[in-house]
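=== RUN LOG ===
request id: a7f3
mode: sequence -> structure
chains: 1
length: 343
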Amino acid sequence: MTQSKTQNRRHVLAERPKGEPTENTLRLETVDVPTPGKGQMLLRNEFLSLDPYMRGRMSDAPSYAAPVEVDQVMVGGTVSQVVTSDVDGFAEGDWVVAFGGWQDYALSDGTSVINMGKNPENPSWALGVLGMPGLTAWAGLTQIGQPKAGETLVVAGASGPVGATVGQIGKILGLRVIGIAGGADKCKHVVETLGFDACVDYKADSFADDLKAQATDGIDIYFENVGGAVFDAVLPLLNPSARIPVCGLISQYNATSLPDGPDRMNYLMGQILRKRMTMRGFIVFDDFGHLYPEFAEQVGGWVKEGKIKYREEMIDGLEQAPSAFIGLLRGEAFGKRVIRLSA
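=== RESULT ===
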């Protein structure tokens, strides 16, 4: 089913999932295209970003952002085109980065919308390497990681849109970079295409030993995207004064209880104290949104020069979004996962 000029397909939250989202978590419905009022513009969403944070927005547990209410449109970043506009600075045909959600059309008053003009090159990249994931990678590494040439950087989720960018920036800044990814194909991509020095398969039974064999000088910066058993293998290898930007914990997002095994909190706190390590979580636009112009200039330049390579996994059709999102949380994505709504 393709986009219509008169009907708005949208995925709404049907229920709050317990554990992994299912086919019953979201409901696809069709309503009339909304009518913009004074000071509003109508956006036709062309591309929808799928991101792990969305799982948290399905829950009503306390978090850094309000949850999506049941029967409301699922939130999500979009690249859209302006259909009609009564907003200064936006005209019909402009491409914009917005927060249009899981639907074909959205209304906006222009707040937090970025105008990319009439003919942007690779518009969907504004949802990946040149957008929120790219800013997350750049800011987390440079502002929290505080990299110094010659240090060792380990990146979890190394084939994903954030991890891949972190590692490539690390190489540009003179670091030894070790990726962690799931499976031989992803590890091959991380080394041969992205240029990491090494990549370790977290699915291998020998994962902890393999990581130790690669990180012979210890780990100075660990960019955390995964948590769980991956962090368990990293923790003993962290050097004194190590920095740990905590971007995500995708291994935990569907968890309904604490993991089995002994309480490791005292061990973690002891390591932080004795090694004088810095561990900091961050929400990228809240903490580093003011740095977006600097990021766009620097990383945009590296992308144009071919110093940063980008893999996009384009999936056609809004109806495919729920299953694609469930697969993302399972670690099935290979690159930045985007839904093309116009297909």
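=== NOTES ===
The radius of gyration is 21 Å.
The CA atoms of residues 96 and 115 lie 5 Å apart.
=== END ===
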